[in-house]
Design goal:
Strand content: 5-15%
Largest sheet: 5 strands, mixed
Number of helices: 9
Oligomer: single chain
CATH topology of the largest domain: Rossmann fold
CATH architecture of the largest domain: 3-Layer(aba) Sandwich
Number of strands: 5
């Protein structure tokens, strides 16, 4: 019996696991299993070296579908991403992304479709590496800035505390609208939208400011 598996990578600067699962389900995926690596750097750690990532190589079988938010979940750089995708395709695993609904199918026999697929893999893997490099440079710049001005590194102080944040996220989980949440919490609609777009970042800000 084939299965559909969501693989997520979650870090303090990333989307929450619950957010990624809901995004996948909203995109129409019926998930049989969810596997996630927490606190793992996508920049420095290969997929096969992550505690949960390496499980994918063991549990996925021909006919299974691997769902990821984006191809950058599948490796740390161009080679790792492209090698991972090709490995799963050789094993008969269908790979689908939540963002842009990309599909990578190793069963494709038409040479033109194969060429388009392979070119797309190369482009997506290169894009993933470029994003990883940009993130690494941003982190480096942040560390340097923190050395010069620790207060500035914390960023803007949140307009909410832990209690308000928890109320916002609870209402978001109940699919309340941004305007309704703003009215219930006293936050601006824009603040609610920022939390909705990046819960992990909002929670990190609370921790940084000790709120």
């Amino acid at each position: 019996m084939t299965k559909t598996v969501l693989y997520a990578r979650v870090s303090t600067a990333d989307q929450t696991l619950e957010h990624q699962r809901k995004q996948a389900e909203a995109a129409g995926f019926k998930l049989d299993q969810v596997i996630a690596d927490h606190g793992v750097s996508g920049i420095s750690t290969k997929l096969a070296e992550r505690s949960e990532g390496k499980r994918l190589f063991d549990i996925l079988r021909p006919g299974d579908t691997l769902v990821v938010r984006w191809v950058d979940r599948l490796g740390r750089d161009y080679r790792d991403v492209s090698d991972s995708i090709r490995h799963f395709m050789r094993d008969g695993v269908l790979i689908k992304t939540v963002i842009n609904s990309m599909v990578f199918d190793g069963a494709t026999k038409d040479p033109i479709q194969q060429a388009v697929r392979d070119a797309l893999i190369a482009f997506m893997a290169a894009t993933a590496e470029a994003q990883a490099v940009a993130t690494k440079e941003a982190q480096k710049a942040g560390i340097e800035n923190a050395k010069r001005d620790p207060a500035a590194y914390r960023g803007r102080k949140p307009s909410y505390d832990r209690e308000v944040f928890d109320k916002v996220t609870a209402m978001l989980d109940m699919e309340a609208g941004a305007s309704a949440i703003a009215a219930a919490t006293g936050l601006t609609r824009q603040a609610v939208l920022r939390i909705r777009a990046d819960r992990a970042g909002a929670e990190k800000a609370l921790a940084v400011w000790d709120l």
